[in-house]
Automatic annotation (TrEMBL):
Biological source species: Sunxiuqinia dokdonensis
GO CC field: cytosol
GO molecular function: guanine phosphoribosyltransferase activity; hypoxanthine phosphoribosyltransferase activity; magnesium ion binding
Keyword Transferase: yes
Name of the protein in question: Hypoxanthine phosphoribosyltransferase
Catalysed reactions, as listed in the record: GMP + diphosphate = guanine + 5-phospho-alpha-D-ribose 1-diphosphate; IMP + diphosphate = hypoxanthine + 5-phospho-alpha-D-ribose 1-diphosphate
Residues in Phosphoribosyltransferase domain copies: 34-177
GO terms of biological process kind: GMP salvage; guanine salvage; hypoxanthine metabolic process; IMP salvage
InterPro entries: HGPRT (IPR050408), PRTase-like (IPR029057), PRTase_dom (IPR000836)
Entry EC number(s): 2.4.2.8
Keyword presence, Membrane: no
Keyword list, A-Z: Glycosyltransferase, Transferase
Gene3D superfamilies given in the database record: 3.40.50.2020
Length: 192
């Protein structure tokens, strides 16, 4: 049997791409993302053993990261749910506080693991955590695939961090530029 992986050097976009008015270059190939996510999942499997954690995927951007990590969670009592906040237009954070919608289960007394694709200014995760805490969970942890430490304007507690990146605008692997680019397997950064 021949195993076919979703991204090899052949499949990954090695040249620059154009999305709307901007040019992007390859920044983080899928192989790197996958190995980082594997390590994050290994750590979670250790840390959360014996618990009944509820993973909360913050849509839209986190859908690929959530799928990648959740399929590597081996705890038979793990659950996942999908919630949403409103989004950016273009490349700037609006800074508005958005309501968490789509929460159908009780969080009371639960261990919550928030899954984010990126913590940039930290405004979204700060807002999300505050809204989750209002539902009286036992504990709230945050896992983010990407972190832009230089862009943070909020002090946030991050329990699992995949990759720290510079303060450049990126697309791919769920992250968008005006709705485009979420389907890219690799992560690209803008060429200024
Ligand atoms: O730390 P911050 O500066 O708040 O940025 C991080 C947030 O921005 C993106 O979401 P966005 O609001 O673009 O919505 P989307 O997930 O639907 O793309 C991303 O998915 C994070 O949730
Ligand atoms: O760099 C980014 N790219 C796409 N979406 C984002 N949301 C916060 N930061 C980013």
């Amino acid at each position: 049997m021949k195993l076919i992986f979703p991204s090899t050097n052949k499949d990954s976009q090695m040249s620059n791409i154009k999305i709307l008015d901007k040019e992007f270059e390859l920044f983080i190939p899928y192989e790197k993302i996958r190995s980082v996510v594997e390590k994050m999942a290994d750590k979670m499997n250790e840390d959360l053993a014996g618990k009944n954690p509820l993973f909360l995927c913050i849509l839209n951007g986190s859908f690929m990261f959530a799928a990648e990590i959740f399929k590597r969670i081996t705890l038979l009592d793990a659950e996942i749910s999908f919630v949403k906040l409103a989004s950016y237009a273009g490349t700037q954070s609006s800074g508005e506080i958005k309501e968490l919608i789509g929460l159908n289960e009780s969080l009371e007394g639960r261990t919550i693991i928030v899954l984010e694709d990126i913590v940039d200014t930290g405004i979204t995760i700060d807002n999300t955590i505050k809204q989750i805490i209002a539902h009286n969970p036992a504990e709230v942890q945050v896992a983010t695939l990407l972190l832009k430490p230089d862009a943070l304007v909020k002090e946030v507690k991050l329990d699992y961090i995949g990759i720290e990146i510079p303060n450049d605008f990126i697309v791919g692997y769920g992250l968008d530029y005006d709705g485009r680019g979420r389907n890219l397997i690799d992560i690209f950064k803008v060429v200024e």
